[in-house]
Amino acid sequence: MLCLTGLPLIFHSEIDNALNPTDWQAANPDGEPLSLDELLDVALMKADGAIPLFMSFDTDRPVINVTTKADPNVSGSQFLFNSFDLTSGDLVPPADKGGKIMDFILQLHTDLFLGLPGMLFLGFMGFLFVVAVVSGVVLYAPFMRKLDFGTVRTKQSTRLKWLDYHNLLGVVTVAWVLVVGITGIINTLEDPIVETWKANDLKDLIAAHQTGEVVTPQASLDAAVEKAVATSPDKVLQFVAFPGSSYSTQSHYAIFLHGNTPLTEHLITPVLVDAISGEFVGLREMPWYSKALSLSRPLHFGDYGGLFLKILWAILDLITIIVLISGVYLWVSRRGRKAVFP
After folding, report:
1. Which CATH class is domain 190-298?
2. Residue 121's closest CA among 184, 177, 175?
3. Reported pTM
4. Sign of the C-alpha dihedral, residues 98, 119, 303, 234?
5. Which residue, of 90, 211, 316, 339, has the greatest Cβ tally within 10 A?
6. Left if phi > 0, otherwise alpha if psi is -120 to 50, otherwise beta: which for 49?
7. How far is residue 286 from each of residues 129, 230, 331, measured CA to CA in Å?
8. How many Å apart are CA 332 and CA 105, to the nearest integer?
């Protein structure tokens, strides 16, 4: 199931674009984007005096997203989410997700629609899978001493032929299978890892600068972002959490930066900047377990090296399916008879 659902997920961006084409275009595609301060003013005017909570950016469109709230103490139903054209400040219509086919496949692949219990169950299955692969390598070692590498005995029994194919394809893909298997296990621990990061490192950073009342930001957001980026020149802006949000303090911008390469873009560094004075306050690098989770995502799906790497991942996925099917065939055909060990 994981191999079959993982295959289309390798090409999730391409499939989403094909299933959900959009006619939306930026108002001034060749023009200078508006400043963050200008866009924030536009967003707050549309929100009729609400306070800003988050500002994020689309990765494939010149679009900024702003989440606001009428009052920091009201329920979650009072959130307002709007998207704006970076080049004009005009409202952008919501992206059409069509039948959400890829969302369905992703959730099936991730947690079987069971939430955290489903993720942990799949993580345990992944652990057993890795154990099976390692044990297969151990069994293959003495086999290699008797036959040349790559030998397929096509003129003997069907079972021996498939045993040779199973061993050959398995050992050729063993490194990739272990990478995908181990990163898949790490991905199933995403919720506990994120909650641990929020409860420890992020909480420590915020708690050290927490104040009483939610302040109205006075410092320029653009200047605050520039100061944050200056502390980590190898990173770029991901999103901003405003004073009073769950990811910031009562009186600071929490500016989240991420790596500027496909492999490191999931490595996040939160930076605190005073929302009144605009002064840099502090930052906190991600702990090792959060870095392991962040790096495991692109490695698992192979979406950090362009289309060529995606095609390679898909080919290796198909070979793994053949190895799994041949393994089941060999196990079934072995029942009731003595195992064949060349």
Report:
1. alpha beta
2. 184
3. 0.83
4. positive
5. 316
6. left
7. 29, 18, 45
8. 30
Predicted local confidence at residue 161, as pLDDT: 86
> Domain-by-domain residue ranges, the chain?
2-12+101-188+305-334, 21-85, 190-298
Q: What pLDDT score was predicted for residue 190?
A: 93
CB 179 within 8 A of CB 299: yes
- Amino acid residing at 68: T
- Please report the DSSP string for 163-206 in residue order: HHHHHHHHHHSHHHHHHHHHHHHHHHTHHHHHHHHIIIIIHHHH
Q: Is residue 265 within 8 Å of residue 225, measured between CB atoms?
A: no
CA–CA dist 235, 270 (Å, integer): 11
**Tokens (6 digits) for 12:** 């999730």
| Residue 309 exposed, middle or buried by CB count within 10 Å (0-12, 13-18, 19+) | middle
Alpha helices (H) in the chain, listed in sequence order: 2-10, 12-19, 36-46, 101-111, 116-144, 158-172, 174-188, 190-197, 203-207, 221-231, 288-301, 306-334
CA gap 16, 99 in Å, rounded: 10
The yes-or-no verdict on residue 339 having pLDDT over 60 is no
What are the b/e assignments for 174-190, b being 16+ CB within 10 Å? bebbeebbbbbbbbbbb
Contact, 86 vs 33, CB < 8 A?
yes
**Torsional class of 267: left (φ above 0), alpha (ψ -120 to 50), beta (otherwise):** beta
Closest CA to 53 of 30, 73, 34, 33: 73
For the chain, what is the mean pLDDT?
87
Arithmetic mean of pLDDT, 166-195? 93
pLDDT tens readout for residues 36-90: 999 999 999 988 878 899 999 988 889 999 999 876 655 555 788 899 999 999 9
Residue for token digits 């994120």?
Answer: 194
Structure tokens at 49: 């005096």
Rounded Cα gap, residues 37 and 21, in angstroms: 31
**What is the rounded distance in angstroms from the CA atom of residue 96 to the CA atom of residue 94?**
6
CA distance 144 to 342: 10
